[in-house]
Design brief:
Largest sheet: 7 strands, mixed
Number of helices: 13
Distance between the termini: 34 Å
Helix content: 25-40%
CATH superfamily of the largest domain: Spore Coat Polysaccharide Biosynthesis Protein SpsA, Chain A
Number of domains: 2
Oligomer: single chain
Structural class: alpha/beta
CATH topology of the largest domain: Spore Coat Polysaccharide Biosynthesis Protein SpsA, Chain A
CATH class of the largest domain: Alpha Beta
Amino acid sequence: MKECIILAGGLGTRLAHLILNLPKCLAPVNDKPFLHYLITYLIHQRIDRFIFSLGYKSDQIVQFIQTQYPQLKAKFIVENEPLGTGGAVINAIQEIESDNFFLVNADTYYTIDFEQLLNFHSQRNAAVSIAVKPFIRPLRYGTVIIDLNGRIQNFSEKSLIEYGLINGGVYILNKAYFRSKEMNKVFSLEKDLFERFVVEDDIFAQVQDQYFIDIGVPEDYQRVQEEFKSLNSYSSKRTLFLDRDGVINNLRENDYVKSVEELEFTEGFLENIGRISQQFDNIFIVTNQQCIGKGIVSVETLANIHYKIIRSIRKQGGFITKVYYCPHLIEDLCNCRKPQPGLLDRIRQEYPEIRFSNSVFIGDSKTDMIAANSRNIKAILFNPKQKKFNQAGITCELKHWNEFHG
């Protein structure tokens, strides 16, 4: 059974002049309360029981739900005084029957895959799992720093950065873990629990690059009026990430492609790239090239090699949006050498229309699969020689390019 606590006790002070005497979650969006969209989404995610944590103008929320959703299995917990996000959960957890439960904010709409987050949570035996969203210029939000397995390393305060992962306000919490903490009656879930215990406890985050909106400020409340009219087209653009050596061109064992003359395409690649290109809006090459750092290949020669690749692909009716490469040595410990996701994050920042959730990564190595998994991108192993490969998170394997159909 899937249970979800919905935090709907906020005052909505910043929207008060726009929504008058309504609680924030009932703010009208295209003639329907915002809460209508959230409940509909949660139903589609197969939530079985809804526990509403209420405060300000709770009677209006109860009346709306009981009138519009009479069949909903709903419980209402009303705060007599503001308890903070953590105190509200403590107050509502008495109604939770399952070992783990979902938690969402009633003023946020973040269309993640709940089953995917639940599987992630279970696989890591996590105490807390948070869905995090890649975000361009997250000025209003703090950001989350995670390792390649999704374990949270740190929560960063709001700052003037160009790109980061933000807390999307959708959680899975372990009930026993939550109850084991001795907290004040009034406390913040984020500040007083997650940030305080992040180093010692099993607190994880999964990247889910889906639609996100928080109507807490007037400009976003105005924006949601238009965006909700076209939600279905939000994730329509598809992106393909391709490793280079061993995927596009043959891997030179214990060596590098040092010149245009040494470039040999993998069997079937050129014959199929035109067909494959028709299925994607963007195609990026993402490759480690420490031959630059070693001084074996010059930047100019590498550019010529990539020019030949792009030109050959175009002759077959395909395209490459852009090539991204890491020139650093392994020992440099940079964040752009796969399996680190730095190049993927850079692409996401430079092409804000793409979504990791609607992307595919084809690689031939463990590092490729780890990089893809770290951003929750569909990972496909190109493995024409059928080598044994012990790595979790592989969606499927390709023996030949004619097997790939998007």
